[in-house]
Amino acid sequence: METRKARGSSTNPTPAPTTVFRYKPSHPLDAIFEPKNVAVVGATEKVGSVGRTILWNLISSPFGGTVFPINSKRASILGIKAYPNLAALPEPVDLAVIVTPAPTVPGIIAECVEAGVKGAIIISAGFKESGAEGAKREQQILEQARRGNLRIIGPNCLGVMSPLTGLNATFASTMARPGKVGFISQSGALCTAVLDWSLSANVGFSAFISIGSMADVGWGDLIDYLGDDPQTSCIVIYMETIGDARSFLSAAREVAFTKPIIIIKAGRTQAAAQAAASHTGTLTGSHEVFNEACRRSGVLSVNRIDELFYMADVLAKQPRPQGPRLTILTNAGGPGVLATDALIGGGGALAELAPQTLAALNQILPAHWSHSNPVDILGDAEPERYAKALEIAAQDPNSDGLLVILTPQAMTEPTLTAEQLKPHATTTGKPILASWMGGAEVASGAMILDRSGIPTFPYPDSAAQVFDYMWRYSFNLRSLYETPQPTLTLDKDGPDQARRRLLKPPASQAGLFSPSLNPSSFWPPMASQLSRRGSPPVKPRPSSGRRKLATRSYSRYFQKRLPTRPMWAACS
Fold first, then answer.
1. Cα dihedral angle (85, 87, 89, 92), rounded to 10 degrees?
2. In degrees to the nearest 10, what's the CA dihedral of 391, 395, 398, 403?
3. Which end of the chain is more exposed for a tag (fewer CB within 10 A), N or C?
4. Hey, what's the torsion of the CAs at 541, 545, 550, 552, to 10 degrees?
5. Taking Cα atoms as reference points, which of 108, 42, 30, 34 lies closest to residue 65?
6. Span 363-404, pLDDT tens digits
């Protein structure tokens, strides 16, 4: 239960404080992400060791709990009283961080169960990724953990950070910034690289998780947990192996209704797949099947690491496009051509300028402007010309999004142009992206745009590729409401004809739905009943406590009518 003091109305000089109670349901993974006490099994004072680094990170970043070093050979470590084992601790602990050699881990997990520990992070390597003996050792761990409902992250992982609470149960060199992005990675080394980059890029995280070999806690568990976390607005994943495909796709389909899930999956080539198998001890599966499964679950799959965080930034700042048509506004022809190539190559399309748009642009632009899309407003474009052209292009009914490109020519004012574009960041109803090309000369303008909510890219082709991902993501979400249409016979009086008439919307509603979102595809179990009552089926809007129930009911219906087994098998 959480409480918060709320201020009264500003018109009352002495408002009475009000206590607001918020019920927060418990979750099995709370023991890992919100522990009250933590034990570090294998803590040591050896400089440069993992055990010392993790202990130091825990005590130097207060999380509101107590840290207990476990070491049978020392009385104290880093000035903190040490204990020989978990049974000797004076208080119960929620989380045990284990950094001892792999052969000792099954016995330590058994001690955790006996001590009532509910969460463990196994940093140690030497399990299924090392061969048959390691796989047997991992199975012993799971058998012990199931006796006490103990949840485990790892083994072979970097650890877990919860920047909002201060928990740093990793051996990384620094703490992540607090923010809204939940980051999950199967590679600990990639975690440290992303962490270092995020500090300079000012990217913050609600959770920073190295998942390792996924002996117990998998993608589905973490997606479900972060999906229910109000502090997480976007989930970003680096994946090498999918593990339990059914759990992952079920959780992803549920959470994608409310939060973007962006994923990059390694192992697309045969050589990379073999490297991933040696790293995690699991095969990567078919990349084509994985991409199709993600599409049908509302998950956005990208190909490069920078695209992960580009998309997290863009989806947090701008609305999703309704289609693939982009209008490009530029003060130079070459960058517009590069952006066009990238856009078309990714499946997007240039918006065809409407007659009223062409007429309006003719009124404000020099006679030699391009008269087509990309809209080249010429190299001498002043800030006011940029702003007016953007305002006109945003009103074009044929356009689903806009990309504004600026190159620093002698008469260009990058900073003032950015100031002129700021008011349009959220007023057009369409996504606006920018590419301020250059270095120091355009840096302040790019910063102004980013802070105003217009994502800015160093190169126009990168911006165009991001737009392609945006409209594909919109289509992925739309597919969550679609199901395969029933196969209807051509028999004049057959039962399928009667069913088709029941599912057909009234004539008065015929224009309200697009072909890809017809009423019978929204919620199949309810469609015929609603039609019999004379009401057209409506698009479901799962929310709060009903979201899980509604989505799981939908998933059960969906799975009964699709040949899902080949997909799960191919992903596994």
1. 130
2. 30
3. N
4. 130
5. 34
6. 999 999 999 999 999 999 999 999 999 999 999 999 999 999
